[in-house]
């Protein structure tokens, strides 16, 4: 099995914060995925995430993933369900939605997916997924009880629990297209507790980031990785300035 994606990302993180570009195959076809992932690579993105909450299926998932791979960046699946798997990718965020009310999203989908991930030869990246605030389609479909925007201590407790349960990635998610991103206070407190634990994984933040100022704020608060998706669908010309702001702080 390939096992180098997380390791490579962690070593890249030693010299710079990272950016992932999210492509939803339900919204973006193979041709557009190729254009977008090449643009992302040129702008300094470090990986392509492929996935979405609904409407992700083969063969389109494989076609979009194949296109994204032509950028030369690692392609990591970001599944909303077990239908979001394809052997064309390099790795999968093997997620458990920590604040889901539904056991399907904490352990059951994972149990169904695990043998498939093994057969497909995908690198599983253990990921604690936490929905904060708005939540969007991911929160709705995942039966999440979103962490209130004004309760950073709850977001940080979820992050810490995820790390203690073995996550190598903690993903604080406001939801795709969220009216505002995860609050910097939630990121800052999560960082503090994860550092106290001596955790050496990647703290990922995404959802609702539309401008360089927001990206800079999340970087200063201690995020290792910023994910953007909607901006690439609506106005890809803005991706470079967001990456620069996040990485350059
Ligand atoms: C969603 O965190 C990602 O899962 C990205 O969100 O589409 O709002 O950039 P946006």
Properties at a glance:
binds SN-glycerol-1-phosphate; alpha/beta; 8-stranded parallel beta barrel; globular; TIM Barrel; 10 helices; 249 residues; 44% helix
- Number of self-contained structural domains: 1
> Major beta sheet, specifics?
8 strands, parallel, barrel
Second-tier CATH architecture: Alpha-Beta Barrel
Order of helices and strands: HEHEHEEHEHHEHEHEHH
Structural class: alpha/beta
Work out the strand percent.
15-25%
CATH class: Alpha Beta
Per DSSP E runs of 2 or more residues, the count of β-strands stands at: 8
Helix content: 40-55%
Low-confidence stretches: none
The largest beta-sheet arranges its strands as 1-2-3-4-5-6-7-8
Q: CATH superfamily, called what?
A: FMN-linked oxidoreductases
| Terminus-to-terminus distance | 36 Å
Ligand inventory: SN-glycerol-1-phosphate
What do you see in this structure?
- With 249 residues, the chain is an alpha/beta fold.
- It has one domain: FMN-linked oxidoreductases (TIM Barrel, Alpha-Beta Barrel).
- It has ten helices and eight strands.
- It has helices at residues 5-13, 30-43, 60-69, 103-120, 136-141, 152-164, 184-197, 212-221, 230-234, 239-248, and strands spanning 18-23, 47-50, 75-77, 91-97, 123-131, 169-173, 202-206, 225-228.
- It has an eight-stranded parallel barrel with strand order 1-2-3-4-5-6-7-8, surrounded by seven helices.
- Helix 2 packs parallel to helix 3 (60-69).
- It is globular.
- The mean pLDDT is 96.
- Bound molecules: SN-glycerol-1-phosphate (1GP).
